[in-house]
Design goal:
This protein is α+β, with helices and mostly antiparallel strands. It has 8 helices and 20 strands. The longest helix is centred in the last third of the chain and has 19 residues. The mean pLDDT is about 95.
């Protein structure tokens, strides 16, 4: 178990902002969890679990506690028959590693999650999704370390309260267990059935433009990867946390009035939620490509903010406020930030 002091959060997050964490502990095996939380308890310090930092924003004041850096690895099959495969995936694995594992075996259910930055742990916590698929659709449950009892337990998916970018692990509501559990592994069910029905708009458009007619897992994975590569900045080159704002969720009854008022507004169904594309709202508000307090609204996908010259969390706050205000003034929708903060 490796313990470091006063480690810069900006080096752990892809937006490259944030002060120092008092302590950083790398969790490389499940046996590290007991001693790590004992260390935090002995020093009476709060803890924060971090993966690869692609969906986390660091504040200027840093974190006066212990950052638990999830480095747990491994994907192993649990059961398999002709129609389904259940695998146990360590939460420090990149989500893309799970996608590649599934596609290599010609299994379906994760292919549209390709190229989403971040770890499996973050994907579970946020119920990550894209292009018509979400973690909730393939998740069986999670194995988690209970910091109150020191035990490893299994929590089935129907107890995780998964919905759009929400779970019991990141919520502040009555079902919240935020901070109590370290998610060690996800149990995922893959299947042999191709994506059915109407595809997500930009994915369908890509397939049509490239005369692609099949929906094999590899075909969809490659298409989604190409689309995301064209839109998303490379975080090793440009500081960004990917999609910065959540899409707007609406009731089904609102769809036709919105389409009548705003022709061309992108509305789509993900899981059980109807959503309005927030990137489109930002673009229509005239902010695509704009530089605000050192933060660039991407000229490829307006949902993405790129840190070109901001050197503080306060710079980000000012840019965020201007974007939220512009969209709210034009459409009446109030955007909500997607990345967590430490």
């Amino acid at each position: 178990m490796n313990i470091q002091e006063n480690f810069s959060i900006s080096q752990l997050t892809t937006m490259r902002l944030g002060g120092a964490a008092r302590y950083l502990i790398e969790i490389e095996k499940e046996a590290d969890l007991g001693p790590a939380y004992e260390f935090a308890g002995n020093h009476q310090l709060p803890t924060y679990i971090l993966g690869d930092g692609s969906n986390v924003i660091g504040r200027d004041e840093g974190f006066a506690g212990v950052v638990m850096l999830n480095r747990l690895k491994g994907i192993e099959p649990i059961s398999e028959d002709s129609d389904k495969l259940i695998v146990r995936v360590a939460t420090g694995e990149e989500l893309d590693a799970l996608v590649d594992y599934a596609v290599a075996g010609d299994w379906y259910g994760a292919e549209a999650l390709a190229a989403i930055p971040g770890t499996v742990g973050g994907a579970v916590m946020q119920n990550a999704g894209a292009y018509g698929q979400e973690m909730s659709q393939i998740l069986v449950g999670v194995d988690a370390y209970d910091t109150q009892t020191g035990e490893l337990i299994h929590i089935p998916v129907d107890e995780l309260a998964l919905c759009y970018r929400h779970s019991i692990f990141n919520s502040d509501g009555p079902d919240s267990v935020k901070g109590r559990y370290f998610i060690v592994a996800a149990r995922v069910r893959l299947h042999r059935t191709e994506i059915q029905g109407e595809l997500y708009g930009s994915l369908q458009a890509y397939l049509l433009e490239n005369d692609i007619t099949d929906r094999r897992a590899k075909t969809i994975r490659d298409a989604v990867t190409n689309i995301r590569t064209q839109k998303l900045p490379d975080s090793t080159v440009m500081a960004s946390s990917g999609s910065f704002f959540k899409n707007i969720t609406i009731d089904e009854a609102d769809i036709e009035p919105l389409r009548a008022q705003y022709p061309g507004i992108p509305i789509f169904l993900i899981g059980n939620c109807w959503e309005v594309a927030s990137g489109w709202l930002i673009e229509q508000a005239g902010l695509k490509g704009k530089l605000l307090h050192g933060m660039r609204v991407s000229d490829k996908a307006a949902l993405i903010l790129i840190n070109e010259s901001a050197d503080s969390y306060e710079d980000l706050c000012r840019a965020r406020a201007e974007i939220i205000a512009a969209v709210e003034e034009k459409f009446g929708f109030r955007l909500e930030q997607e990345p967590e903060e430490i």
